[in-house]
Amino acid sequence: MDKAKRKAIIAGNWKMNKTPKEATTLLNAITPLVADADCEVIACVPYVDLAAAIEATAGTNVKIGAENCHWAESGAFTGEISTGMLKEVGVEYVVLGHSERRQYFGETDETVNKRTKAALAAGLKPIVCVGELLWERECNITEEVIARQIKLDLWDVTEEELKNVVIAYEPVWAIGTGKTATADQAEEVCAFIRAQLAKLYNQDAADAVTIQYGGSMNDGNADELLSKIDVDGGLIGGASLVAEKFAAIVKAASK
Ligand code: 13P
Fold first, then answer.
1. Catalytic annotation on 70?
2. pTM for this entry
3. Which of 13, 168, 215, 240 could staple 129 via S-S, CB 3.0–4.6 A?
4. Are 217 and 232 in contact (CB under 8 A)?
């Protein structure tokens, strides 16, 4: 499938940044700058910012996402948030399996899979993050790591459900380090992810999936990364917190 037929998606992952008031201020700065974007624009924000973010982006082309969700509908899971809670406030996307959750909060491929299934069942669109550690890249097992994550994280996800899944390739060594994967490295792994999807589903289904790159993407390198055939967008951390930088990345994806 022609890259141009896939949905380009630029998503900000705010991580643990911005209070509700600050979220409103930032989104009020972002929305006019991206109003004519020719790609999907998303801001994934902390839970307590969701209501303010949804209000600030009402009537605009900016969609709001959460940064995680639990797999159970309700129950004794102190500190967790259900898909139903997210749906009711108007969330459309949810980041799952981010490397920071895997690294600091014991997230495994099994729990990423449970969250992904629950999100899809609730009508949320998961942005499923995969990526290798520096050590894994140095040991030459990037493809094994990614293949395993893709297979396990999407276990039991149907071809129909896959239409609502976004994959984010985020090499862990490039996150928040200022060390970006080269465009060729990003393309190599994004193409590998698409090949894995083709194996697990079929070529048409794989060709339709939006695959983002994430890891120190910014207004200076977005053009080159996004020019690659299998890089359909970006999941942006630091640069998504600065309206002008985020808007410049959106502009690069709109070309
Ligand atoms: P940075 O853009 O800050 O490297 O973060 C990337 C990321 O983790 C997005 O989810």
1. no
2. 0.97
3. 168
4. no
